[in-house]
Amino acid sequence: MAFTTRSVSCALRLISRAPVVRSNLVNPVLYHPLMQARTFSVAVSLFKKSEVIRETEVPVSIYSPDGRAAAAGPGHFSIPVKETLAAATASIAEAENENVIPLGATVYNSMSPTMQKMSVMGKVIIVTGGARGLGNHMARACVEAGAKAMIIFDANQDLGDEAAAELHRKSGIDVSFFKVDVRDGDAINAAVEQVVNLYGTPDVLINSAGIADSNIKAETYDPALFRRLIDINLTGSFLMAQSVGRAMMAAGKPGSIIMVASMSGSIVNYPQEQSCYNASKAGVIQLGKSLAAEWAKYAIRVNCISPGYMDTALNKVPALDAQKKIWRSLTPQDRLGAVDDLNGLCVFLASDASSFMTGSNILIDGGYTLY
Ligand SMILES: NC(=O)c1ccc[n+]([C@@H]2O[C@H](COP(=O)([O-])OP(=O)(O)OC[C@H]3O[C@@H](n4cnc5c(N)ncnc54)[C@H](O)[C@@H]3O)[C@@H](O)[C@H]2O)c1
After folding, report:
1. Catalytic pick among 31, 199, 277, 309
2. Domain of 204: which CATH number?
3. Residue 295 resides in a domain
4. In this structure, what are the phi and psi dihedrals at residue 26, rounded to the nearest 5 degrees?
5. More exposed terminus of the chain, fewer Cβ within 10 Å: N or C?
6. Cβ(315) – ligand 1 distance below 6 Å
C-alpha cells in the first residue's frame, strides 16, 4: 500500500493524540560500569517521537469561497516543520560534544566540608524528561557533582536510551533509562520499585518532563489539548512525586524533590497567549509548596525551579523566532538562558547544602520578572 505524505501525516496525528498506551513491562535499559557501553546511532523515529504532540508536519485543509484555497495550494496540504526535528537532533549533537567528568572519591575527600556538602556524593537520582534539554543537562551536572546512579525517566524511547548510553559512556557511572510516560501512574510505580531494587531508595527526584503549547487563544483552546497539557505538566509531576515520596517514606530516608516549574507560573508571558501552560506551572508551584508542608515531617524537601526563557528545543520553533526578539528585549540580561543554566541551582537543591530549604520557588530568568 502506498502512503502519501498526507496519509502518513494523518496517521501520525492519530497516534499522537492517542491516550497513553499500556504495555505489560517496564523494561529499563541499564548501563553499569562493568557493562560494555553499547554504541548505536541516534535515530529520531517519527513514530516513537509522536508520544508527545510535536508535529513534524502540520496538515492543513482550507475551505474558502474566495479562492484562497487555490492560492495556497490544492486545498489539502502539509506544512513541514523541519526545524523542530533538526533542533532536537542538534541538541543531541551539542550534548554529545560536551564532556562529563564524574566526581571521584579522591577529589571528594580532598574537598573542604562546605564543598563536600554542596555535592551529591553517593546519591541515587531520578530525572524525568532527562532524554534531552534542561533535564538532560541537570542529569549531567549531578553526575559531575558525585551522583552514585542516575536514572532517566522519559517517554521518548530513542532519545532516552541514547542519552543514558552516552552519559554512562562519558562518566562510567551507573545510568539507566526507563521509558515511562509521566501520566502513567502504574508504570511509574513499577519503575520506581525497580529503581529501589537496583540502586536503593532514591535520594533525589528532578521533575523536568513537560510540554508547552503557546500562541493559542483561550477562546479557541481545544479542551482535549488543555487537559493533555495539564495531565503531563501538573498531574505527571504529582504522580512522580507521590511514587518517589512513598519510597522515601517507606525507607525512612530523607530526600529532595525538585520541580521544574516556570516563571510562567508567576507571570503571564508576553506577547504569546498560553493560558494552559501558565496555569499548569502555577499548579506545579502550588503543588510543590503543598507537598513541602505535608512531607517536612518525613524529612522530604520539595522546591521549585522557575526558569525564564531558555534556549532549548522546546523553543526552537520557527513560529517563535519573531517573539524571541521580544522576549530578549524584556530580559535585562538580553539573552535566553543556556541549556545548562539551571545546573548549579539543581545541584544545590539536590545537595545537603540546601537542607533548610523547602517550599521555595526560585526564579532563574536573567532578570525577566524584574520589570
Ligand atoms: N525551555 C524553556 O524555555 C523553559 C522555560 C521554563 C520552564 N521550562 C520547563 O522545563 C522543563 C524542560 O523543558 P525543556 O526545554 O528541556 O524541554 P524539552 O522538550 O527539550 O525536554 C522535555 C523532555 O520531557 C520529555 N517528556 C515530554 N512529555 C513527557 C511525558 N508525558 N512523559 C515523560 N517524558 C516526557 C520529552 O521527551 C523530553 O525529553 C519543562 O517542564 C518545561 O516546561 C522550560
Report:
1. 277
2. 3.40.50.720
3. yes
4. -100, 105
5. N
6. yes
